[in-house]
Amino acid sequence: MSTEPLFKRVALIGFGLIGGSIARAARAQGLAGEIVTSARSAKTRARVEELRVVDRVLETNAEAVKGADLVILCIPVGACGPVAEEIAPFLEQDAIVSDVGSVKGAIARDMGPHIPQGVHFVPAHPVAGTEHSGPDSGFAELFINRWCILTPPEGTDAAAVEKLREFWAGLGAKVEIMTPDHHDLVLAITSHLPHLIAYTIVGTADELAQVTSSEVIKFSAGGFRDFTRIAASDPTMWRDVFLANKEAVLEMLGTFNEDLSKLTRAIRRNDGEALFEHFTRTRAIRRGIVEIGQDSAAPDFGRPHANLTKKPE
Amino acid sequence: MSTEPLFKRVALIGFGLIGGSIARAARAQGLAGEIVTSARSAKTRARVEELRVVDRVLETNAEAVKGADLVILCIPVGACGPVAEEIAPFLEQDAIVSDVGSVKGAIARDMGPHIPQGVHFVPAHPVAGTEHSGPDSGFAELFINRWCILTPPEGTDAAAVEKLREFWAGLGAKVEIMTPDHHDLVLAITSHLPHLIAYTIVGTADELAQVTSSEVIKFSAGGFRDFTRIAASDPTMWRDVFLANKEAVLEMLGTFNEDLSKLTRAIRRNDGEALFEHFTRTRAIRRGIVEIGQDSAAPDFGRPHANLTKKPE
């Protein structure tokens, strides 16, 4: 590219699935003159250097953010407040500070007060991920066709918001702007409650007296295995999500419990008609998701199948 | 193959995902001299004939089972009793009658009494499927590496059981034998409860006042979309499963509700330690499932990702 990159220097604080994916995609798209990250442990620094997807790996967050015009915290929600406080004195004037947290009310509350005058605070949440974590798990294509939600506080500089929007669009994402409160309600149903329920049922299956774990694992293709993917997500990240979005999660959980009671009652009363009606209705949502490219149309999420081979006679 | 096929004539009653997959796989593996099926509607008969995966499509079940040495009912559990009664007078001596139902206690109770003396009754349940249904949805590889559970009543002819085991092994499945009651408990947790919960949460998301359906669809990559796949399964089949396996489903649901209350309480009390401990434990089950080849090790079930393309400057 002959034109200037969008940012001179992007500092990624945290290099797990999301940080690592941003680095790879931003580099592939030439969105940053330089990409730096930091890691406290020498072992992690060595690993990230080996991956050769960032320009420098620094020992402290303070060093990493110096001279950066975009700083993105890619760490669990609960760590964002303290890290914002830590880096505040080292931030450049006019820099944009953002994050990737799955809860936005708590981010506004915990990070907001630490952001110095003259620095633009534009929280973000890319709605994308896999069940893998750690520096090796990232990949450049993670954000393609996924939404990234920005929740700038009222009065945020419009040019800063636009620049961050361009950055995420460059990574392949579609960008939408919301209030933190609405974001937290939407994500409570599209992400947080599904994770809570998946974590619950996988735990239930693991502790049954009448059915062994080995049976659960063997016969998981009946549906259960679909839940185990998101129940294998990063525990620290998810602990923080539930603590930070408590109110909205409890509210959605209340509605879910009412609906589960209704279906349970239909089963108990042999009300086949109510069950059939409900099961027919839920097909439409899947169709909508596939139609707008948010999931694969292939059966079974496109899971691979082996070929049939005839046994030798 | 120079040797005789395992069965002279296989009659498949019902030609949806499972019936259609059995036909394709049995033909590919040369397991049957002839494969026949039946359909009441002329339109379905025409469609199945077009697919060219069976030898003949007959108008009635009675005609289909005549001369068959293996008859498999590939229809919803609730229809199996009446169809067993209907075909009973036309079954050949020494034929094997089986099914593919997801509940086995009800099958023993509803089909068992109609099976004539001299005919072998060996119920079966291949633990495999996709969210698609209908005659076009089947494929020969569906059963590869999946388990098929046989639940022969006490005293069933061992040679008949062995022959059906060979048939399923030929389709690529691993075969296991259980009592109907134990089968129904195992499947209640590995398949029925996951479906009930998926149906519930997809319904919940569809009816919220604060979050629109379009938002649910757009931001579904946060976890929700994983649930929509099994909530798009065949409504008739699943209505019958819940009515037929009521006791075991209600029992598992009781345990699930207790566990969900425990996690809810941990969130309400800000007990991060309890959440972290639970979320760490559930990772092991996923590992077990991937290790024995019951799910893909690729992130996101191996869902495809588009390539990054640089925008033209």
Plain-language structure description:
- Two copies of one chain form a homodimer.
- Chain A is an alpha/beta fold.
- Chain A has two domains: 7-178, NAD(P)-binding Rossmann-like Domain (Rossmann fold), CATH 3.40.50.720; 182-296, 6-phosphogluconate dehydrogenase C-terminal like domain (6-phosphogluconate dehydrogenase C-terminal fold, Orthogonal Bundle).
- Chain A contains 13 helices and nine strands.
- Chain A has a six-stranded parallel beta sheet with strand order 3-2-1-4-5-6, sandwiched between helices. Chain A has a three-stranded mixed beta sheet with strand order 7-8-9, covered by helices on one side.
- The longest helix of chain A is centred in the middle third of the chain and has 27 residues, at 180-206.
- The mean pLDDT of chain A is 95.
- Chains A and B meet through helix 7, helix 8, helix 9, helix 10 and helix 11 of A and helix 7, helix 8, helix 9, helix 10 and helix 11 of B.
Task: Give the topology.
2 copies of one chain form a homodimer.
Chain A: E1 7-13, H1 17-28, E2 32-38, H2 42-51, E3 56-58, H3 61-65, E4 70-73, H4 77-87, E5 96-99, H5 105-111, E6 120-121, E7 124-126, E8 147-150, H6 158-170, E9 174-177, H7 180-206, H8 213-218, H9 225-230, H10 235-244, H11 246-268, H12 272-281, H13 283-291
Parallel strand pairs in A: 1-2, 1-4, 2-3, 4-5, 5-6, 8-9
Antiparallel strand pairs in A: 7-8
Helix pairs in contact in A: 4-5, 7-11
